[in-house]
């Protein structure tokens, strides 16, 4: 495994027309590019993940798993706007000499993909054999497959959509409201908005899991209890976990980026945009996903030429895309084993 940083001193033009004066991209690579340069696996990560895919997608990536460094050259880049090394709200603005905080410009999924493109070219990668991602990562993968249809050979997308739904946007706005209600967020200091971020994470969890998940994992056995419930403790615990590894400014920025996702923007229609994808595509839905319901993945499969739709029956809701690695492995192995001409 290798963690590296790509420094791009030239201005980075955003879809909005605004400019980030300098760009830094932190990324991980695993394994080696083979002589034919046809063993590249590129992973696009989700909202609060980082570039170390072996850490957060265990069971699918790593030694002895489907995507392993013995066979593949695996690349995962931290996304634009994050707080794990790539330029984001807690980076220094070279034009002012101070950190961006809330002045960090709004970015889109296409801006994230444009940064991936810079890194791809820097690494000398001409073809990506497999491009995959779930949730926000799937949104990036979709955009990339539309923007560069000749480069992506296989597209694997899980629990994602062609455009972010009003339901998803409403969840994100509720989280941002919680963050903005924390007065420290407006002080523009590194620790600003932490209480708001904790509340935001608690809201998000309700969309990541399901009623049945909570009823099983957080159920009470003490029938006399009137306070200090397991579910309450769980929400606080998960909120603290995120606060200890993330920041409110990046979270706010990235949630707005997710809201901006629409492959049909300036492309006539969503359907015509999806028709531009040439990669052999597997679309996977999670049966219990409340945030990205399976109708969204079925829509993708219907409009991406030749795409195959598969569904995982999971107890874990949206988080199933990170947890159900054995089921994902089985579906992906079967998909990749079928000759291209027969798909």
TrEMBL record:
InterPro entries: AB_hydrolase_1 (IPR000073), AB_hydrolase_fold (IPR029058), HAT_MetX-like (IPR008220)
SUPFAM superfamilies: alpha/beta-Hydrolases
Binding-site list for substrate: 201, 319
Subcellular location as annotated: Cytoplasm
Annotated GO biological process: homoserine metabolic process; methionine biosynthetic process
Pathway it works in: Amino-acid biosynthesis; L-methionine biosynthesis via de novo pathway; O-acetyl-L-homoserine from L-homoserine: step 1/1
Keywords, comma-separated and alphabetical: Acyltransferase, Amino-acid biosynthesis, Cytoplasm, Methionine biosynthesis, Transferase
Subunit and partners: Homodimer.
Function of the protein: Transfers an acetyl group from acetyl-CoA to L-homoserine, forming acetyl-L-homoserine.
UniProt-recorded name of the protein: Homoserine O-acetyltransferase
Organism this protein belongs to: Adhaeribacter arboris
Gene: metX
């Amino acid at each position: 495994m290798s963690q590296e940083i790509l420094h791009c001193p030239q201005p980075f033009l955003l879809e909005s027309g605004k400019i980030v004066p300098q760009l830094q991209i932190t990324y991980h690579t695993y394994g080696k590019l083979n002589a034919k340069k046809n063993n590249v696996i590129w992973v696009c990560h989700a909202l609060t993940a980082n570039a170390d895919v072996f850490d957060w997608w265990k069971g699918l990536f790593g030694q002895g798993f489907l995507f392993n460094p013995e066979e593949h050259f695996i690349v995962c880049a931290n996304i634009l706007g994050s707080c794990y090394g790539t330029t984001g709200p807690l980076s220094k603005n070279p034009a002012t000499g101070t950190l961006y905080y809330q002045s960090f410009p709004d970015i889109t999924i296409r801006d994230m993909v444009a940064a991936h493109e810079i890194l791809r070219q820097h690494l000398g990668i001409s073809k990506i054999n497999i491009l995959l991602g779930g949730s926000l990562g799937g949104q990036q993968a979709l955009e990339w497959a539309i923007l560069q249809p000749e480069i992506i050979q296989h597209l694997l997308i899980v629990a994602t959509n062609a455009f972010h739904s009003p339901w998803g946007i409403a969840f994100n706005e509720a989280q941002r409201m919680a963050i903005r209600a924390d007065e420290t967020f407006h002080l523009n200091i590194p620790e600003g908005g932490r209480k708001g971020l904790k509340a935001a994470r608690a809201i998000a969890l309700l969309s990541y899991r399901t009623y049945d998940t909570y009823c099983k994992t957080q159920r009470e056995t003490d029938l006399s209890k009137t306070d200090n419930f397991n579910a309450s403790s769980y929400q606080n615990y998960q909120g603290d976990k995120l606060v200890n590894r993330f920041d409110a400014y990046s979270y706010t920025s990235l949630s707005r980026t997710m809201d901006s996702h629409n492959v049909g923007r300036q492309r006539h229609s969503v359907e015509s945009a999806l028709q531009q994808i040439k990669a052999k595509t597997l679309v996977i839905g999670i049966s219990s996903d409340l945030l990205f319901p399976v109708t969204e993945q079925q829509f993708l499969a219907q409009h991406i030429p030749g795409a195959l739709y598969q569904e995982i029956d999971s107890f874990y809701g949206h988080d199933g895309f990170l947890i159900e690695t054995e089921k994902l492995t089985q579906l992906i192995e079967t998909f990749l084993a079928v000759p291209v001409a027969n798909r």
